[in-house]
Write a structure and sequence with these properties.
The protein has about 270 residues and is α/β, with parallel strands linked by helices. It is built from ten helices and nine strands. It is globular and about 50 Å long.
Length: about 270
């Protein structure tokens, strides 16, 4: 069964980003639970920013699961990416992601690599940068195996990375490198920009999809844009997808109404 999740960001440096809830973890979890979400997707400053006992207690109290953890703070706070031309920085990036993976694994949750994939910078070819990414992901794929969790790779739109922007490209990359525990994130906002037919792309790459970001064409909550959700929902259902559909969207017009709109849309399309 497809499950719902909502994003909670606890990193002040990314407060302008597409996250539904902010600041107060317990208050946000209480609101998510009251609305009927199945889980939360957490963005924290590090893998030890929240005590594991504290989070375990709150998840139990509000009957929620940890759907995934984001790694974007590694780039936003520390300037780390997996494609930096400086070896020492790449090693620090790998170490940061490992820490986040270990945190998530305590709750059976995968980590997401989005912005930390980086870009092909001036003077570097795309092929060389993708090669650096592959080397880093080989290490992280093995770490995921040892932890018993998946690692999620997110193709971003062309305005956020010049590496891989479509599911086709990312799926081919996974197959070429024979990664065992890396799956793809189908972000509906990014796909609206990059995919000619998001539903067809989901159907074609269904065996690689391990997480979905639920946002409309304008990155507002689903229902406030023009994404044709019916075909996307049908593709996910026909593919047998049973993971999380997580609201990574701008908190418009405000977090409470954004969360309420998201769960309404989720129930409309998936229940």
């Amino acid at each position: 069964m497809i499950k719902s999740a909502v994003t909670i960001a606890l990193v002040p440096q990314i407060k302008t980003g597409p996250w539904i809830f902010w600041d107060n973890l317990e208050e946000s979890m209480g609101k998510a639970s009251a609305l009927g979400f199945d889980g939360i997707e957490l963005f924290t400053a590090s893998g030890n920013a929240i005590g594991t006992d504290v989070l375990k207690k709150l998840l139990g109290k509000y009957t929620l699961q940890l759907a995934a953890v984001g790694t974007g703070a590694g780039k936003v706070i520390h300037g780390l990416t997996l494609t930096d031309t400086n070896n020492a920085i790449r090693e620090k990036a790998i170490a940061f992601i490992k820490e986040m993976m270990e945190f998530g694994a305590l709750f059976g949750a995968p980590a997401i690599i989005g912005s930390m994939q980086g870009n092909a910078v001036l003077g570097e070819t795309q092929d060389n940068s993708i090669g650096l990414l592959a080397e880093a992901l080989q290490v992280l794929d093995q770490h995921a195996t040892s932890l018993g969790v998946k690692l999620i790779y997110e193709p971003l739109n062309r305005y956020e990375t010049n590496l891989m922007n479509r599911l086709d490209d990312a799926a081919a990359f996974i197959e070429q490198n024979k990664f065992k525990n890396i799956v793809l994130l189908a972000d509906l906002f990014h796909m609206n920009i990059e995919e000619a037919d998001p539903a067809e792309s989901i159907q074609k790459n269904r065996q690689h999809i391990g997480h979905v970001h639920f946002a409309d064409s304008n990155r507002k909550p689903v229902g406030y844009g023009h994404t044709q959700m019916e075909s996307i929902v049908n593709a996910l259902t026909e593919a047998g997808y049973d993971g999380y559909v997580s609201a990574e969207a701008f908190p418009w017009p405000d977090p409470d109404r954004a969360a309420a709109q998201t769960i309404r849309s989720f129930k409309q399309f998936f229940k």
